[in-house]
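RECORD TYPE: inverse folding
INPUT: structure tokens
STRUCTURE:
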């Protein structure tokens, strides 16, 4: 069944059987003090507003039987997959913090915040870059599952969310970005990044809200 979700620049046609919910990098290293986000000088508390609406969307997506994919940005313990150019601009990567080595797979800080912990069987995709498609098997997973559309959420709006939506759009996936389920350390960037997605007739996607999505999902799939 196709639901029409109110969005910019126009309604987004959503079929739960061909749509995946993608939750990008809701990791302790970005959302909690002491990790990568705060090492870069950001106020990490700005991202936590996305947690509650995202909890509602996650629970509705699970109830509706949608494919759910969680991503995590980070690197192998030996950092062989961390480009020197990235390390040079984020020299905190791999250093010790109260939550373990920053942005290193297997460390406590690299994992997803408790409130949005993946359910058993949900896909957790580790990525070395900002985009979720680069150097990952995400496209293969989506094609194998018959997915043609993505509901995209997570942090940060103008970095990993934007890069992922651009990558997805170029691969032919239709993306609905949920404004209140994303967040940025720079509120202005969040607003402008969202406008950039739906401008020019939806140049690389649609932008809606969690409440618009939840009220449009089939009955029984609502949070
Ligand atoms: N996940 C993600 O967006 N990674 C970043 O490094 N974002 C920043 O805004 N720094």
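DESIGNED SEQUENCE:
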């Amino acid at each position: 069944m196709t639901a029409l979700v109110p969005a910019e620049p126009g309604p987004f046609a959503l079929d739960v059987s061909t749509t995946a919910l993608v939750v990008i990098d809701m990791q302790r290293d970005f959302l909690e003090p002491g990790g990568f986000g705060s090492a870069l000088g950001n106020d990490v508390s700005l991202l936590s507003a996305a947690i509650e609406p995202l909890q509602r969307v996650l629970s509705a997506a699970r109830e509706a039987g949608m494919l759910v994919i969680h991503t995590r940005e980070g690197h192998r313990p030996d950092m062989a997959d961390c480009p020197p150019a990235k390390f040079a601009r984020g020299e905190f990567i791999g250093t010790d913090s109260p939550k373990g080595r920053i942005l290193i797979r297997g460390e406590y800080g690299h994992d997803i915040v408790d409130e949005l912990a993946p359910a058993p069987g949900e896909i957790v995709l580790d990525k070395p870059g900002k985009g979720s498609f680069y150097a990952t098997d995400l496209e293969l997973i989506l094609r194998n599952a018959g997915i043609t559309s993505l509901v995209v959420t997570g942090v940060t709006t103008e970095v990993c969310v934007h890069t992922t939506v651009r990558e997805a759009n170029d691969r032919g996936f239709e993306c609905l970005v949920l404004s209140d389920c994303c967040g940025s350390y720079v509120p202005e960037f969040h607003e402008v990044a969202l406008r950039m997605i739906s401008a020019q007739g939806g140049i690389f996607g649609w932008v809606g809200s969690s409440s618009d999505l939840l009220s449009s999902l089939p009955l029984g799939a609502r949070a």
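NOTES: Helices lie at 28-31, 36-39, 51-64, 84-88, 138-144, 157-170, 187-202, 210-216.
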